[in-house]
Design a protein that fits this description.
about 600 residues, alpha+beta, 8-stranded mixed sheet, about 20% strand
């Protein structure tokens, strides 16, 4: 995406006027949409978010968004709010201070938005309307003149902007989701989470909206995907589109190609433990899922991964953190992630560079997609081997995208191919081979997709490194890598200690309050046991102490000093251990004081 791309998201879910119900979806929709649009691997937009703004501020932001643009710019404006149709039939977008009887003064007219879109010099302008529509009313009136159809697209007639190449409008619905009764919305029409924006985010994030599988999500692709998704979820809601565009508009890169594995569900006993009300039982279930995540049978590991992702999203912080820690083990971790072949002669065959994939089998099972036709990828037992086609002279720079079951990673590759007449004077790159056999011809408009299997691949002999720089590259198991890992573990333990301390204090306060309400007949020990306040306190003491021990090991590891350690590793390790120590020591002190207070006070109260 070489052109400049800008997005403005307007999300209003709170309104001062009592007649406008609070919406649940806009805030979360705005955050999710901002994430995928801003992601360089998906939308690559510069994103602004305006949340619960007044009508005046909305108009200022909209006009400045469309002003001072160039023909190469692509603009995307997204509304998530109430849409109101006046008695005269004009459409307005509700602001936080909108008063329905005074729409012209306190809301943003669709004609204003249309004027900004028509006057911009940007090449492409796209408007997404995810609104719940209703009719405007007069104070005390008992009915709404507006019909059941809003006819949103009528507010944006098909006239091409003077300085641009076109525009498009996609609306989540063209009908009224609810009606007004007196001064308030109907009680039987409570707002629901947005199906429309969820479909937009899901289609872009997963790449499933790339219906023609061309590597890009076009406006037409996204509309067709959203239309089907919304109709499946709510047959009464029909997205609509109007567009006046020259050529095809690509809104995002496609992320299709990620491996999908048919999961084997976890055993019923394990699923029962995951749904237990006991925190320790759920902790034990997460540890068992972590073991299954490392299973050599990929469907078993995938089933565990899906359970852990659900826990990381929905369980309490303590359990969610354990699940998140387990999921980090299956992140794609190629080593190295940057390959430089140096200067190599044209039509030569540079030596292959090995790339190791770390982690359990599920982490190593991925698809390798070279993004340039001169890149070659071969699977190996431990990962993959990379080499380049030197048929054309000049500098080469490209990426190999690795797509696994849960995330993606990129290996950057560089080389400089010398012209044929300089071959005799060219110093080969670090891994250049003396074999000048010409590589097999290859179509330049096709790219290989290589599936990296974690096993069942015959071993290949690994070539020894040939240069001093290569010999000094640290091995993943070396001290220079171990120290930051230990420091990260110490920080995770310290955070766990702080979280469990807060949980223990909260439960202890509740127990003491209940004891005070029981009067002379009460016993604080019973209240403490009833609220299980001692369990997280014990966990805090253990994790805090272990955090300090692990931080000490990390700080004095050989990888943090001497020639084994890099500056980045040393700096990162010191920072992590300092933060871990700063969290663990106060947590331990407070936990010990709380324990002493319990031992001293429980017998007297």
């Amino acid at each position: 995406m070489t052109d400049s791309r800008h997005a403005l998201i307007i999300a209003n879910d709170r309104y001062t006027d009592q007649g406008l119900k609070k919406l649940r979806a806009p805030a979360q929709d705005a955050a999710a949409l901002e994430r995928v649009l801003h992601d360089p691997q998906i939308g690559d937009f510069e994103v602004q978010v305006v949340h619960n703004a007044s009508a005046d501020l909305m108009r200022r932001r909209i006009q400045s968004f469309f002003n001072d643009r160039r023909r190469s710019d692509t603009l995307l404006l997204h509304f998530s709010c109430h849409g109101l149709k006046s008695e005269s039939g004009e459409l307005y977008f509700a602001a936080s201070d909108t008063e329905p009887p005074l729409l012209a003064a306190t809301a943003v007219a669709s004609q204003f938005v249309r004027g900004c879109m028509s006057g911009t010099r940007a090449g492409r302008s796209v408007l997404f309307l995810d609104c719940c529509y209703g009719g405007a009313f007069s104070r005390g009136s008992a009915s709404v003149r507006a019909s059941g159809e809003v006819n949103v697209l009528e507010s944006f007639p098909k006239d091409e902007p003077a300085g641009g190449r076109g525009w498009a409008v996609i609306t989540a619905s063209d009908s009224m989701e609810y009606s007004f009764e007196g001064n308030e919305l109907a009680e039987d029409s409570a707002p629901r989470p947005s199906v429309f924006t969820h479909a937009v985010v899901e289609g872009l994030e997963t790449g499933e909206a790339d219906l023609d599988a061309d590597g890009n999500v076009s406006l037409d692709d996204l509309y067709e995907y959203v239309y089907r998704h919304v109709r499946e979820q709510n047959p009464h809601q029909t997205p609509k589109k109007a567009a006046e565009l020259q050529g095809e508009l690509h809104l995002a890169h496609s992320r299709r190609g990620r491996i999908k594995i048919v999961a084997i569900p976890s055993p019923p006993t394990l699923r029962t433990a995951l749904n237990s009300d006991e925190v320790l039982t759920r902790q034990g279930a997460v540890l068992e899922l972590r073991k299954r995540l490392r299973h050599t049978e990929l469907p078993v590991a995938e089933g565990a991964r899906q359970h852990l992702e659900d826990i990381a999203r929905n369980d309490i912080q303590q359990i969610a953190d354990l699940a998140s820690d387990a999921l980090r083990e299956i992140r794609l971790a190629p080593s190295p992630d940057h390959l430089d072949f140096g200067r190599v002669p044209r039509s030569s065959t540079p030596g292959k560079r090995p790339v190791t994939l770390h982690g359990p089998p599920l982490a190593r099972h991925c698809v390798a997609q070279p993004q340039q036709p001169w890149l070659r990828v071969d699977p190996t037992r431990s990962g993959l081997e990379v080499h380049v086609d030197t048929a054309a002279a000049g500098p080469l720079a490209g990426d190999i995208v690795l797509k696994g079951v849960a995330d993606e990673s990129v290996i950057h590759v560089e080389a400089e191919v010398a012209p044929a007449d300089e071959a005799g004077r060219t110093k080969p790159g670090p891994d250049a081979s003396n074999d000048s056999a010409k590589p097999k011809p290859r179509s330049e408009d096709k790219r290989d997709t290589v599936v990296i299997e974690p096993s069942h691949v015959p071993p290949r002999p690994m070539k020894p490194p040939l240069t001093t720089a290569h010999r000094k590259r640290p091995d993943p198991s070396s001290p220079s890598r171990r120290a930051p890992v230990l420091a990260g573990a110490a920080l995770a333990l310290a955070v766990t200690a702080v979280v469990t301390l807060l949980l223990a204090l909260q439960r202890g306060v509740v127990a003491v309050v209940e004891r005070g309400e029981e009067g002379r007949s009460g016993n604080v020990e019973d209240n403490i046991r009833e609220h299980a306040a001692l369990t997280p306190l014990t966990v805090c003491l253990i994790t805090g102490a272990v955090a300090l021990v692990v931080a000490a090991f990390a700080r004095h590891d050989p990888g943090t000093r001497g020639e084994h350690g890099t500056r980045r590793a040393v700096s990162g390790t010191r920072t992590l251990t300092s933060v871990a120590t700063g969290l663990a020591i106060p947590a331990l002190v407070l936990a010990v004081l709380a324990g002493i207070a319990y031992l001293v006070g429980s017998g007297q109260w």
